# Entry
Amino acid sequence: MKVVVDTDLGIAPWRQVRDQLIRLITTGALAPGTRLPSIRQLARDLALASGTVARVYRELEEDGWVYTARAKGTVVADIADRPGKAALLRAAADEYARAARELGVDPGAALDAAAAALESVQ
Amino acid sequence: MPFDNVVAVALIMGLFGLAILVPLWPGEKQGKKVLRRWGVEDPSPSDVAEAVRYLRRRRFWYPWLFLGLPLLADLAGIGNDGASLFLATLLIGALIAEVLALRSPKGARREAGLERRAVRGLVPDWGLILYAVIVAAAVVWLVVHRWWALLGVAAAVSAVTWLVILLAVRRPSTRDSAADGALRVRSARVAAGLGLAATVTLAIPEVTNLGSWLVVVAGLAGWYHLAHRSRVEAA
# Structure
């Protein structure tokens, strides 16, 4: 299980890390109680500033995805109402639509890009 | 020493070092072997490339250390024997390799595993306890005999050993998490084993009684079992 940062994507690295961690938590790949790597470890592995990873963990904690335990570090929280696949897909689509709008891409081109991406990951 | 003599000695040592390096230089076969030994049963080509890079980063330094350390030991007034020189070469080679591996990953795309790394995840508890007991026994032995210079060397050996282990935890991960984890475990366990062996050979150059015999046997057995993962551990 890993997190990837690609600085060529044009998305802020902290956002890439946060989104991937949320996806892993919501899909159950990161089970409740799982200890996340320390801020320094993740920052070194991804060649990011410690402050960037600290911001990700802080935001995840504020949104209730993780909690901090003194002895264990940052731990995945137990999410009572884990969203289903449809909700997750809708959230990802919303995120993509927002990114396409920010880039000023017309809906047809955005749909083509999404279809091409789906083809490429099959 | 006249300058032309220094150049001649450096040249001869350099050529000798190269002659040692050629047979030591690892290829794919050695890369696969080291990964399989440390738990990656079916390594991919990128795993093997990573393992070869890992081995080369160490072995590149061995000839130069093997030739240079006796000179440094003479300058420091410390006697050196074959076993100590061999162990010091491997340990310092590992330290240099781990320091070099600290460099941040380059490129736009970077990956990180989500497993939390710690010393206890790399070296088994029995290895850490054995290390602490052997080092404590060696310190007592050296103090009893008032071998203060050797006590300093033993402290340096422990410092280098722990640096290698901590750097194995700390260095950034490479892309493949299975190969990355296996090579970290190898670094830490081999360093702990070498540290044990170096400590007992330094502190107890001659076995004189049952106590010293027990410490030497425990140290060498610990070295063997730390540096060679057993089938029970692999299962």
Q: What stands out?
A: The mean pLDDT of chain B is 85.
